[in-house]
Write a structure and sequence with these properties.
By secondary structure, the chain is of the alpha+beta class. It is 29% helix and 23% strand. It contains five helices and seven strands. The strands form two sheets. Strands 2-3-4-5-6 form a five-stranded antiparallel sheet. A two-stranded antiparallel ribbon has the order 1-7. The chain is globular and about 45 Å long. 21% of the residues are buried.
Length: 201
């Protein structure tokens, strides 16, 4: 009876360890490429994990105001999200989608504030892939079925490398993940230096 109990405990421990390990390895639902290396547009990404929504965001101090409001919605593959919950960082083959929609006022019974347009006005994809230069890549498929890798000389790479809170991603704008990254100790040195140097508000 004692031996049976020990075997059962050992089996349960191995199963638990296997479950944790499987959550932290590279996701099986990673990016899909064409034979010539273009990224296939992610399908049904709105069924992924929703991370955040920003309104009229800009990373330049003197950005010209648009004549309309813009919403940015961010989604990530579910398996990559689960891995982040365990490790505080993203596994290889993580895929994040940034979706743009215009802001609208006066729709239906709404009398103030903004709602999001039905039409998607832009789509960008951020991929973690060890086979790419620098280990991360940006793609802008828009409404196309595929997209070429943006060259590493594009300004988005330098911006993310210099300011991203975790692993070239702007986790500082993901309210449910930033506290977790702080707890796990995975915030980037560049981001920590930036917030420590920022004047108190």
């Amino acid at each position: 009876m004692v031996r049976m109990s020990l075997l059962l405990i050992g089996t349960l421990l191995l199963s638990s360890k296997s479950a944790i390990t499987s959550a932290t390895v590279a996701p099986a639902d990673g990016p899909s490429y064409t034979s010539d290396g273009q990224l296939k547009r992610p399908q049904r990404y709105r069924e992924w994990v929703f991370l955040t929504s920003g309104v009229d965001m800009s990373y330049t101090p003197k950005a010209q105001a648009d004549s309309h409001h813009v919403f940015d919605n961010v989604f990530v593959r579910p398996s990559a999200y689960q891995a982040f919950l365990h490790t505080g960082t993203w596994p290889d083959k993580t895929v994040l989608v940034l979706e743009n929609r215009n802001g609208e006022s006066g729709r239906s019974i709404n009398t103030r504030g903004q709602t999001q347009s039905i039409e998607v006005t832009g789509l960008e994809v951020h991929v973690k892939d060890a086979t790419l230069p620098g280990g991360w890549g940006f793609y802008v498929p828009g409404s196309a079925a595929t997209a070429k890798l943006m060259p590493h000389t594009a300004s988005c790479y330098a911006c993310h490398e210099q300011h991203a809170a975790v692993d070239t991603t702007f986790v500082q704008f993901y309210p449910t993940l930033l506290p977790l990254a702080q707890q796990k100790g995975t915030l980037s040195a560049a981001y920590l230096k930036e917030i420590n140097a920022a004047p108190a508000k």
